[in-house]
Structures are given as structure tokens and as C-alpha cells.
Design brief:
Largest sheet: 9 strands, mixed
Order of helices and strands: HEHEHHEEHEHEHEEE
Shape: globular
Number of helices: 7
Number of strands: 9
Radius of gyration: 18 Å
Strand content: 15-25%
Oligomer: single chain
């Protein structure tokens, strides 16, 4: 159950329609809009046993799935895609009715960010997927790797020289009509988006767990403070689900 705050401190269960309204993208986008989706323990751990799955609950999974329902493209770093065993999005993993009603393609592609073009042609991201992945890489990545991925059916985008230029990457997604961007991590990609001031919304679930250990934060990289404002608050099974948007949005 997902419960929003109500006037006077009373809470009530949120409907699917209200949830969609909260997490949907603005109408009439004229540029890529990046919503970042993360889960964290209350003491700041981004993973348990190396994977974020150990932190989520049913409510978090529902919001995670909603992110895929509402987007044009899923953006993810290669390290996270490999660690979490990413495959292409299957038609049964998204609500066909919702996507059709919103005028979206039946299935969003996965866009993987990898400076060295490290996705293997045999990766589950390519095999058996309904929509070919987009591999965002650099001019410094070995030409043979890029060519092999193109031959395997991937849409390879070169954005930047030695490091991925995320502004150029988003521009390439824009050229493909992919403006509703659902970023699913990982921390290095999120940190780079923060540094380049490209985050429009952060959706973060705080799991009611104390993890300890040496797990990292949800964002890593250069310090680049960005002002956000709270957009919504939900809670379910002692987990807190927050949405923050950029203050100038």
C-alpha cells in the first residue's frame, strides 16, 4: 500500500491514477527531461550484497515499474546494468494500456552509458530483446567493439572523446524522439548528471534498513551542489518514497 500525506495529518491509500499523475513527466517537453530513480537504506547504503534489490519493497518496486511505464527510454550505466543483470525491457514488464494512452511506444529501449563500449554482443541486453539497446560511448572506445555491437543490432552513439559527454548523449536521445528519460543509476552516472546539471527530478526511496558496511552513496563524483525542492511524499511499510525536483523547474 502507498500512503500520501493528507490535509490535517490524515493519510489515505493512493490510487494508481494519482500515482501516475505524481510521477508523470511534464506535457509538451521540448528537451530531454531526466528523472533519476534510486533506493537507499536510511544510513545511506546504495546496495546490500552489491545489489540494490536487497533494499526495495513492494511499493518501491511498483514505483520502479511505473518509471518504465512512463518513459521514452531507460538510461543506465554499464556497471549497474551488468551488476543487476539487465535485459531488454519485455512487453509484459510495462503496462501496454498506460503506454498506449500516453502515446508512447509499446516498449522503451535501454540506453547504456559505457565510455569503453564494454557491452558484449552476447549480452542479454541484445539477445531476445524486443527493442535494440542504445549504447552511448566515446570516440576513444575500440572501433572493433563499436562495430561488433552495431553488427549485433545495437544503436551505437558516440558522445564525447575520452569520457561520455552527457549533454551530447541526451541530444542524441532527443534526435530519436526520446525525451522522457528514466535514469536507473548507477552512482557514477548519477554523479556525472549532477555535475553537468542535468537532473530534473530525483525519485528516491528510503528503505527501513540499517546496512552498515562499505556500500557507496547513490551518487559519486565531483562535488556540485544543486538546489532541489520537495515535490511529493509517500510512505509504505515503513519505507519513505520522496520526489524532489530542481528548484528552477
Amino acid at each position: 500500500m502507498l500512503w500520501p500525506p493528507r490535509d490535517g495529518g490524515i493519510t489515505g491509500e493512493i490510487t494508481d491514477e494519482e500515482l501516475e499523475r505524481l510521477y508523470d513527466y511534464p506535457d509538451g517537453l521540448d528537451r530531454p527531461w531526466v528523472q533519476v530513480n534510486f533506493v537507499s537504506s536510511v544510513d545511506g547504503a546504495v546496495a546490500v550484497g552489491g545489489r540494490s534489490a536487497g533494499l526495495g519493497n513492494a511499493a518501491d518496486k511498483k514505483v520502479f515499474a511505473l518509471g518504465r511505464d512512463l518513459c521514452d527510454v531507460v538510461l543506465v550505466g554499464h556497471g549497474t546494468a551488468a551488476a543487476e543483470g539487465y535485459q531488454g525491457v519485455k512487453a509484459g514488464e510495462v503496462r501496454a494500456e498506460r503506454r498506449a494512452r500516453l502515446g508512447l511506444a509499446p516498449v522503451p529501449p535501454i540506453a547504456v552509458v559505457t565510455a569503453r563500449c564494454s557491452v558484449e554482443p552476447s549480452s542479454p541486453l541484445l539477445g531476445g530483446t524486443r527493442v535494440p539497446p542504445i549504447v552511448i560511448t566515446t570516440a576513444a572506445a575500440p572501433e572493433g567493439r563499436r562495430r561488433a555491437l552495431v553488427e549485433a543490432g545495437a544503436d551505437v552513439v558516440v558522445a564525447g572523446d575520452g569520457r561520455v559527454d552527457l549533454r551530447a548523449a541526451l541530444a542524441a536521445l532527443d534526435e530519436r524522439g526520446l525525451r522522457r528519460v528514466d535514469c536507473e543509476g548507477g552512482p557514477a552516472l548519477f554523479g556525472a548528471l549532477i555535475a553537468d546539471d542535468l537532473v530534473d527530478v530525483l525519485c528516491v526511496t528510503f528503505s527501513p534498513l540499517l546496512v552498515g558496511g562499505d556500500a557507496g552513496r547513490i551518487a559519486t563524483g565531483p562535488e556540485a551542489p544543486r538546489q532541489l525542492e520537495l515535490a511529493s511524499v509517500l510512505h509504505a511499510d515503513s519505507a519513505l518514497l520522496l520526489r524532489y525536483r530542481r528548484a528552477d523547474a
